[in-house]
Amino acid sequence: MLISCDNTPQRIESYKQGPGKIREQNFTIAILPEQNVFEQKKRYRPLAEYLSNTLNSNVKIKLLDSYGAVDNEIKNKTIDGAFFGSLNYVLEKEKNKLEPIARPVEPNGRSQYRGIIFTRKGSGLTENAASWKGKSIALVHEETTAGYIFPRWYLRRYGIWNFESHFRRIIFTGSHDAAILAVYKGHAALGAAKDIVYEKVLSENPAIRDDMVIVAKSIEVPSNSLCVRGDMKPAFREMLKKVLLSMHTTAEGKHALIALNAVRFTETTDSEFHALREMTREAGIDAKAYHLRDRR
Amino acid sequence: VKKKLIMGLGLVLLLFTVAAVVVVKNLDTIMLNQKISSEQDIIIGKYNEMLFQMKGAQAELYRHQAGYTRNIDDLVNYIETFDENMSFLSGSYAGRLSDVACMQCHEKIEERLTSLAAIFAEINSLIRDYKGNVSILITSSDASQTKALEDAATTRGNSIIQKLGQVRHAADKMRGEIRNKRSALIERSRHIIFVSIFLTITLSALIFFLVIRGITSPINSLIAGIQTIASGDFSRRVEVKEKDEIGFMAGAFNDMTARLSAMNEEKDSLLRALQGFNEELEKKVEEATEKLRLTQESMARAETLSAVGTLAAGVSHEISTPLNSIIGFTQIVLSEMEENNPSKGDLQIIAQEAGRCKKIVQGLLTFARSHVHEESQTDVNALLGETLLLIEYQPSMRRITIERNMEQALNPVEADPLQLKQVFLNIILNAVQAMPEGGRLTVSTRNTGGGIEVSVEDTGVGIPSEEGKRIFQPFYTTKKDGTGLGLSISYGIIKEHEGEIFVESEVEKGTTFRILLPVRGKERTKATGPSLRSAGE
Lengths: 296, 537
Fold this sequence. Notes:
The structure holds 2 protein chains of 2 kinds.
Chain A: H1 9-15, E1 26-31, H2 37-55, E2 58-63, H3 67-75, E3 81-84, H4 86-95, E4 98-105, E5 112-120, E6 136-139, H5 145-157, H6 163-166, E7 169-172, H7 176-184, E8 190-194, H8 195-204, H9 206-209, E9 212-222, E10 225-229, H10 234-246, H11 251-259, E11 264-267, H12 274-282
Parallel strand pairs in A: 1-2, 1-3, 6-7, 6-8
Antiparallel strand pairs in A: 3-10, 4-10, 4-11, 5-8, 5-9
Chain B: H1 2-65, H2 73-93, H3 100-105, H4 109-137, H5 143-230, H6 245-336, H7 342-368, E1 376-378, H8 380-391, E2 400-405, E3 413-415, H9 417-433, E4 439-447, E5 451-458, H10 465-468, H11 486-496, E6 500-506, E7 510-518, H12 529-532
Parallel strand pairs in B: 2-4
Antiparallel strand pairs in B: 1-3, 4-5, 5-7, 6-7
Helix pairs in contact in B: 1-2, 1-5, 2-4, 4-5, 5-6, 6-7, 8-9, 9-11
């Protein structure tokens, strides 16, 4: 109440978001929590606003808690697209018609990532997966390349076929940074996550860097890409792609890209996922039969 | 005037400024109270909103964890909005601990703010942890981890709701306190505004009245003075004590009036002088005109006399010879005629009339003849005495009183005594003849500026004015046996002496002859004294 000494009702009112334009067409993009869900929402909000303005549609970002939820919403057509992790695209593509559009390019020029397996320094664990026997591992989710498929594929390369029994305990943290922090805090001996998230967490927490070490790296796969339902009108799909690929040329677009920690969007094509499809197959995953499980 | 107007206007402006400041200050107070009241409602509304958001977040979390929804959008939105509101409120409260302005309205503000800041810090800490818990548990598939996080989040959420409830309760209480104060403050402000407006209007009217009176009063005095002076009273002075423009104008007006008064007096003096001068001038013009007229008459008369004289000389010469023959032969016939001759009487008449004709002719000759003019120092008083002696024993003088007013020290004049005596005798005889019933004959002499004046006044029948103009003409006479040459001859003699002769007469009252003579021959030219005097005098 005391702030009223200096703040008028108008000022308080102006703090609220201004009224949006009335648009007929809706376009809902789902995202999944990878890091801090609140930060993630903030990062995607400028993109939604930019697309709303340029596409003259009500572009909405919808947070879902799992790829199972995304799969359901795609089927139910309650969402129009989603930022798919590479594995989820590969898996979903086998079940539903899905078209990749584009993905952000980070300031360092990367639009791809690697899966990494890391441990604490002095844990005695090496790149040899046999040494991991009986240890605990923090994974992200069963539908992530870096946080599930790559470790699974990596163990198979060492002839270890029973992934679950090789570890004393497997923790699914739900997000890449949570997996990294689980290892750092000692909740797990090993962890698997995206290298780009790993670098980000370490840069934000220099103390962690000295305590962590990477023991394995995967091939590069496309970063999270915006994919839309296959039944979407080609014209709108092309327009969406065009807008995304050119948004770095406008001031508003740049603003949205900065929020996403990106410099531009680059086109994503289905062919870029062939290597991952092979890795998935080698990891013993039947993409067609793979059930995108819900959290429960 | 300008100073008064500026002072009056300045005072009124000052009053209005003070009143405006008072009114604005009180309006500000009222508006501030209204604003505070509105903001209180908004802030409390915000607390309610945050309570709703946190309760909503708790419900969404429960629904998600219970598997009712996979959509975490609402959960995130609730927490985000709550967090934004919290950040906004915390940021607004921050830095207000020493705000003096706030202290004026809120008691123990520092204590309250410190307490509030502590609660906010606690809520902020709780919401930070709450967000951390939620961020992990919504994606965690580890049941034990999820359960622990869920419990922690629920506990923290409830704590946030509880603390927020406390804050809202405190805000509600404060709103009640301020509402109570606000009514009294608004009433007091209304009263102050009303009194300020009333005082401003009253004092302004008073100032205007004083200023207008201060301006119009000396102006009215000035107008009254001007009107008085305009009516011709230059003695009036305007009394204005003020030392302003009107006072200066009054002073200048008084100076102007003084000068006008002086000029008016000078004008009157000049007018009087001019009037006198005009009168004198008119008099002189009249005198000159009369003199001119007399001169013209004199000249005409002189010319007439001259012509008559010339004519008479010729005629007399031609007539006198046969007349002498007539008289001689008549005398001879009479001497030889018997006394009883019937014709003797006729002859005697012839002789008598012829003698009379001879006298006329002699008169004419005398008139026309150039006398031998022998001037000498002549005592006019003596001449008059001799003349009066000649007539005073005449029978006709029996009923006439002679009065002599002689100047004892009468200046002698350069003149022909015989001619002058003839003139005096002629005039005195005329006077005697004008008084057949008796009367008074006054003979006077006196010295004048350059000569002497002789006047012969009778109390006889007088001369009518139309006759008076002709009495000096030759042969003009009113007497039965007069020749009409006496006064003509007298006139000629006086003119020969460069003198003047005038007659003044009034019928039945008398006649006065005045003769002016210059003293000396040399001065005759200069001695124009007699000629300066008109014949009418």
